[in-house]
Amino acid sequence: MHGAADRLDDATAAALLGQLKGWRIVNGRLRKEVPVADFVAAMQLANAVANIAERETHHPELAIAYARVRIDFCTHDVGGLSRNDFICAARIDRLPFLSGASS
Length: 103
Description:
Radius of gyration: 13 Å
Oligomer: single chain
Number of helices: 3
Protein name: Putative pterin-4-alpha-carbinolamine dehydratase
Keywords: Lyase
CATH topology: Gyrase A, domain 2
GO molecular function: 4-alpha-hydroxytetrahydrobiopterin dehydratase activity
Structural class: alpha+beta
GO biological process, one term: tetrahydrobiopterin biosynthetic process
Low-confidence stretches: none
Family: Belongs to the pterin-4-alpha-carbinolamine dehydratase family.
Shape: globular
């Protein structure tokens, strides 16, 4: 059984990915690209993600464009994806203003 910070094998990562909405695995990272209304909405989303990351002490890479936010998770300590990445992704998906967003 894997701990939260153990590297996941491809089959486990694929199974966990199936439980998320709009996320994909790109170059060993768990990624979601979220279109938003404007720059203010992009910053609001980025700040909400930052709050989750701080609570979980697991920080993603964020890329903010005018009306799009890209979120990438990877557990650098294990050199790949861990359960922590998927836990944080699931918490992000529960943000109120993402419930209707598609990516």
